[in-house]
Amino acid sequence: MKKLIIINGPNLNLLGRREPSIYGSLTFTEYFESVKAKYPGIVLEYFQSNIEGELIDKLHEVGFSFDGVILNAGAYTHTSIGIGDAIKGIETPVVEVHISNTFGREEFRHQSYLSAHAKGVILGFGMQSYELAIQSFL
Asked: Which residues does the record give as substrate binding sites (predicted)?
């Protein structure tokens, strides 16, 4: 049985309330429960933090024992060399995910310090971006 984890970064705890025109009105907890029900044949865990070091610690924790990481590092995508180095340093493949099309947004969101170390990047498909990442591991 595949063991995957979704790791969300800063401000993604506000999904459902934060900028619904970009991120939708569904909370991540509601979405996560529906995805778990849709994929009963995999072990699916979830972690969210607004703190960069906690995201790095979680990558280190799961990076040698899980089958895959689905990572939406939020704004840290564009600023964190440390998270990029953590992805590079672990064995578990990571798929970088974004709800919005970051290339259709502000210029600073066009740069990712994670992509070069990720198995792949999925962006712009709303919450379905996570499910596409899950399917990439199946």
From this structure: 72, 78, 85, 99-100, 109
**Domains of the chain by start residue, with CATH:** 3-137 (3.40.50.9100)
> Is 57 annotated as belonging to a binding site?
no
DSSP states of 39-85 as a string? -TTSEEEEEE-S-HHHHHHHHHHHTTT-SEEEEE-GGGGGT-HHHHH
- Structure tokens that stand for 75 in this block: 């704004």
78 is in an annotated binding site: yes
pLDDT of 103 over the 70 cut? no
- Give the model confidence (pLDDT) of 19-31 as tens digits: 777 677 888 999 9
51, 83, 40, 100 alpha-carbon torsion, rounded to 10° = 80
Q: Which residue's structure tokens are 């994929």?
A: 39
Spatial strand order in the sheet of 120-123: 43-48, 3-8, 68-72, 94-98, 120-123
Return the active site residues: 23, 98
Sequence-ordered list of residues with C-beta below 8 angstroms from that of 40, at least 6 positions apart, any chain: none
The answer on whether 67 is annotated among ligand-binding residues is no
Q: How far apart are CA 123 and CA 111, in angstroms?
A: 13
